[in-house]
Amino acid sequence: MASGSPFTEGPARWIVIGVAAVAAITGGIMWMNAGHESTDDAQVEGRITQIAARVGGPILDLKVTDNQYVEKGTVLAVIDPREYQVAVDRAEAELADAQANALAAGTNVPIATVATSSDLRTAGGSVEEARAGVTVADRQVDAARAQLTAAEARVREQQAAITRTTRDVERLKPLVAKEEVAQQQFDSAVAAADAAKAAGEAAQSDVESARAAVAVAEQRALQARASSTRADAALASARTAPEQLRVSRARAAAADARVKQAAAVLAQAQLNLERTTIIAPSAGIIGKRSIELGQQIQPGQPLFALVTRDDVWVVANFKETQLADMRPGQIADIEVDALGGRSFTGKIDSIGAATGARFSLLPPENATGNYVKVVQRVPVKIVLDPGQDPEHQLRPGLSVVPTVHTK
C-alpha cells in the first residue's frame, strides 16, 4: 500500500493525539501539585493515658463505663480500703509509741548532763578529802610508832636502872650485916631499887599503850586507804559519765530516727489508703475498661485507658523524597476520611528525628550483601488550628490525608 493512504494515516494520528493528551494531563497534574506534598499514610493522634492500680484488692465500686466522658478528679473506681485502713491505724500506733520513747530518751539527756557535772565535782572533792585523810592517818601511824620506840627505849633504860640498883642492894646487904656501911646508905639503895622497878613497870605500861596506839593508827590508816580507793573508783566512774552522756544522746538520736521511720511508714500507709480511690488524672473519655465489680486486681494492673479529646494532632509519614522543602510552620490541609472528607487546617509543628523504621521493634540491618534500597518514611507532626472541632469528632487513630503547602 502507499504510505499516504487513509488507512495508515488514521491510526497514527490517533496515537499522536493520545500521547499529546497524556502529556497534557500529566503536565497539568504536575503543575497543580507543584508546591504541595501529600500522603495518605497519616493518622490522628492524641494523648492516651493508661490508668493502672497502684495497690491491690477487690473492686468495691465501679463508677464509669466505656466511652464515658469524665472530668479531671472524677472517681473511676474504688478498691476495698479496709486492709489499708488497718495498716494506717497500726502505723499511727507505732508512731505514737516511737514519739513517747523519743520524749523519754530526750528527757534523760539534760538530766544526765547535770548529773555528770555534779558527780565529777563530788567525786573530785571526795578524792582530795580521802587522800588528805590517808596523809593524816600515815602521820598518826608514824607518830604512834615513834612514841612506841621512845617507850621501848625508856623500858630498856629502866631495866638497866633496875639491874644497877638491884646489884647495889645485893652488894650493900652483907656490908650492912657487918656494919661496914651505914644502914641509911643501904635503905637508900633499897629505895632506889624499888623506884627503878616501879619506873620499869610504868615504862612497860607505856609500851603497851604505845603499841595499842600504833594498832589503832594503822587501822585508821587502812580505813583511810580504803576510803581513798573508793573515792578513786567513784572518780573513775564519774569520769565515764561523759561517755554515758554520749550514750544517752545516741539513744535519744536513735529514738528520733525511729520516730521519723514510723512517720514514713504512716505516710506510706496513708498514701496506699488514698490510692484505693482511683481518680481521673485529667479530663477525657474512658476506653478499654478491663475490670468488673468485685474483681481482684494486682498492683500495676491496667484498668482503663483515658483518651483526651481536646488535644489531638496529626502524624503524617511522608516519604523521604518529599521532605526537601518541608519546614516547621508551613500550612497544611487535612482531609478526614471518617468525616466524609471534611477538611481541617493546621501547620507543621516538627519533623521526626529519625525514620519510622529506626523506631521499629526490629530496625532493618542494611549491612548485608543483599541490600535493596527502600524509600523511607519520616513522621511529621501537624497541629490543628484551634476551634475547628467543637464537637470533638476527631479521635486518635482516624485516617487522614494531609497536604502540606511547601511554597
Spans with pLDDT under 50 lasting ≥5 residues? 1-8
- Assigned CATH architecture of the largest domain: Beta Barrel
**Biggest sheet, open or closed, and with what strands and sense?**
9 strands, antiparallel
Global structural class: alpha+beta
Helix content: 40-55%
Number of helices: 4
What is the CA-CA span between the terminal residues? 56 Å
Which sequence of SSEs, written as H and E, runs from N to C? Answer: HEEEEEHHHEEEEEEEE
Say what the CATH topology of the largest domain is: OB fold (Dihydrolipoamide Acetyltransferase, E2P)
Overall, the morphology is rod-shaped
Query: In percent, how much strand structure appears in the residues?
Result: 15-25%
Number of domains: 2
User: Radius of gyration from the CA trace?
Assistant: 60 Å
CATH class membership of the largest domain: Mainly Beta
Question: How much is the average pLDDT?
Answer: 82
β-strand number: 13
CATH superfamily assignment of the largest domain? RNA polymerase II/Efflux pump adaptor protein, barrel-sandwich hybrid domain
